[in-house]
Design goal:
Elements: H1 11-24, H2 37-44, H3 48-61, E1 64-67, E2 71-74, H4 78-102, H5 107-123
Antiparallel strand pairs: 1-2
Length: 127
């Protein structure tokens, strides 16, 4: 995975968000073992303490859990994962509506444009 970071927000928050995305998108499926803190930190080129902080926050949310000698695992609670996925999706849609409103579109116009794009993509063409 390629890790991307912005300078305007704490790195651990961005790590948390990116790992959350990996979980809700199924790249880390329910019940799967996560790589070690050191491996994740090395992959993301961050301090292991920073990665540890992000993982601790994910544990607090219940999305991952630790087994003392075995490492960290993704929850097997598919409903919890789906709820997180729905929350992220809702946030993205609300951001889209806000951005479109700034362009002068109302919600109906935005939805109409989305349908137009989907129909065009199905037909293999451009909008």
């Amino acid at each position: 995975m390629t890790w991307h970071f912005d300078n305007d927000r704490p790195i651990y928050t961005q790590l948390l968000e990116q790992i959350l995305f990996l979980i809700v998108s199924g790249q880390y499926p329910p019940g799967s073992k996560l790589p070690s803190v050191r491996d994740l930190a090395s992959e993301a080129s961050v301090n292991p303490n920073t990665m540890q902080r992000a993982l601790t926050e994910l544990e607090r949310s219940g999305l991952i859990y630790s087994q003392r000698t075995s490492g960290r695992f993704v929850t097997e609670d598919r409903a919890m994962i789906q709820k997180m996925k729905d929350t992220i999706g809702k946030d993205k849609i609300l951001t889209l509506f806000k951005d479109m409103e700034q362009l002068g579109y109302d919600q109906d116009q935005t939805i109409s444009l989305i349908h137009k794009i989907i129909d065009s993509e199905k037909a293999g063409g451009n909008v």
